[in-house]
């Protein structure tokens, strides 16, 4: 079998919790569709001379990665798709002259690698999890996002057993309100990612303040390029720490794992380097008793399928991030849509990844931009009067109020 071509499918995905306007646009049949926000999904398909096609998804910066995919295509055409590891190495060294490309380079490798695993599974007539060593579990627990008591209670009513809130605006009061609303039988995590990122000193103080709420984890309490700061937080508080979504491959996740700076590693299934790398990252983490909870907050549904296969096959799978009340178009993008019951998603059993995209539907939503300022001014993330400074890291002011309920 030989690879004969690569096709890409870039779409502008609606934002989670879409506006009424976006939902109305979805219901019309005219094209193209214009949706708010800047979330893009990039899918690809590898074609072969035997008529078997593999599907993958790339995140990291989808509009940029699409160009990378087409640049890499000549290196893959004519190759045997069965040689997954060798092709991963070939792509990796081909990009070396451009420097350390992080999640953008790894995002391109991810979609290709994912499609290669899909082809191998289809060729052999088995699901990808079988190729990874077989199933450890049949269903994968998920958590969803909830920044208010109302959303948290809605998640609880849907049978979900864990939620995550986010943002650096008033985090202690937010967590306290959620805990009061859902009681003690629902796990709560908080994502403190910037901008603005907390200083290590502020993160230490905040994580200590969150200790009484017995959090599932505190995620990204400091900027991802300050791994030394995690040691300070480790010494300051006894709360599980999670990170890793902004790094890629075993090389990017190595320090967090080997120095046991986190309790939960969170590689992004769309930009970690592919199923090949996800399996290796999980094995590294297992040796340090670190759990795996893949990041999936902005990903499309093909990468979610890949995550289900990986989590089915590794012993240290903790939970999968899933915005189960995402943009309605998500359900129409993927065939079939994953089955979720009582906070659990069934592991696919069809050969390969077990999914495909609706190419006609995807084509209705051309990309309309893929970058933005992450937080609006009214989110309250920045100290008053400093929003237009667009700072990467900022010391918190009004500290007595901020660090206390």
From TrEMBL:
- Write the protein's name: Galactonate dehydratase
Species in which this protein is naturally found: Rhizobium azibense
Give the SUPFAM superfamilies listed for this entry. Answer: Enolase C-terminal domain-like (SSF51604), Enolase N-terminal domain-like (SSF54826)
| TM annotation in the entry | none
Checking PANTHER family in the record gives: D-GALACTONATE DEHYDRATASE (PTHR48080:SF2), D-GALACTONATE DEHYDRATASE-RELATED (PTHR48080)
| Any GO molecular function | lyase activity
Keyword presence, Lyase: yes
Could you tell me which residue ranges the Mandelate racemase/muconate lactonizing enzyme C-terminal domain spans? 149-240
According to its UniProt record, what is one Pfam family this protein matches?
Answer: MR_MLE_C
Q: Which InterPro entries match?
A: DgoD-like, Enolase-like_C_sf, Enolase-like_N, Enolase_C-like, Mandelate_racemase_C, Mandelate_racemase_N_dom
The record's keywords, sorted A to Z, are:
Lyase
CDD domains, alphabetically? MR_like (cd03316)
């Amino acid at each position: 079998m030989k690879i004969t071509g690569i096709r890409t499918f870039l779409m502008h995905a609606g934002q989670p919790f879409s506006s009424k306007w976006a939902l109305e646009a979805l219901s019309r049949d005219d094209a193209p569709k214009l949706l708010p926000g800047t979330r893009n999904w990039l899918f690809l398909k590898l074609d072969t001379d035997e008529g078997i096609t593999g599907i993958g998804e790339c995140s990291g910066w989808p509009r940029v990665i699409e160009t990378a995919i087409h640049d890499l295509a000549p290196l893959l055409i004519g190759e045997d798709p069965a040689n997954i590891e060798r092709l991963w190495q070939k792509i990796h060294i081909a990009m070396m002259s451009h420097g350390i490309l992080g999640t953008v380079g790894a995002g391109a490798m991810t979609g290709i690698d994912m499609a290669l695993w899909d082809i191998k599974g289809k060729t052999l007539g088995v699901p990808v999890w079988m190729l990874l060593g077989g199933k450890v579990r049949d269903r994968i627990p998920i958590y969803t996002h909830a920044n208010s008591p109302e959303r948290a209670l809605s998640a609880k009513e849907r049978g979900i057993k864990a939620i995550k809130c986010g943002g650096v605006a008033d985090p202690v009061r937010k967590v306290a309100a959620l805990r009061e609303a859902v009681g003690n039988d629902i796990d709560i995590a908080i994502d403190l990612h910037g901008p603005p990122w907390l200083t290590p000193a502020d993160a230490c103080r905040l994580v200590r303040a969150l200790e009484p709420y017995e959090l599932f984890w505190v995620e990204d309490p400091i900027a991802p390029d300050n791994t030394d700061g995690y040691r300070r937080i480790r010494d300051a508080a006894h709360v599980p720490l999670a990170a890793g979504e902004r790094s890629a491959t075993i090389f990017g996740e190595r320090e967090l794992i080997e120095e046991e700076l986190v309790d939960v590693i969170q590689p992004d299934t769309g930009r970690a380097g592919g199923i090949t790398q996800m399996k290796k990252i999980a094995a590294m983490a297992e040796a340090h008793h670190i759990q795996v909870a893949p990041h999936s907050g902005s990903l499309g549904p093909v990468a979610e399928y890949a995550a289900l296969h990986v989590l089915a096959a590794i012993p240290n799978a903790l939970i999968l991030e899933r915005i189960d009340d995402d943009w309605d178009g998500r359900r129409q993008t993927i065939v079939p849509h994953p089955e979720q019951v009582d906070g659990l998603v069934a592991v696919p059993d069809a050969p390969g990844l077990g999914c495909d995209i609706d190419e006609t539907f995807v084509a209705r939503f051309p990309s309309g931009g893929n970058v933005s300022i992450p937080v609006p001014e009214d989110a309250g993330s920045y100290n008053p009067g400093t929003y237009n400074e667009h700072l990467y890291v900022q010391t918190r002011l009004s500290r007595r109020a901020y660090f206390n309920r």
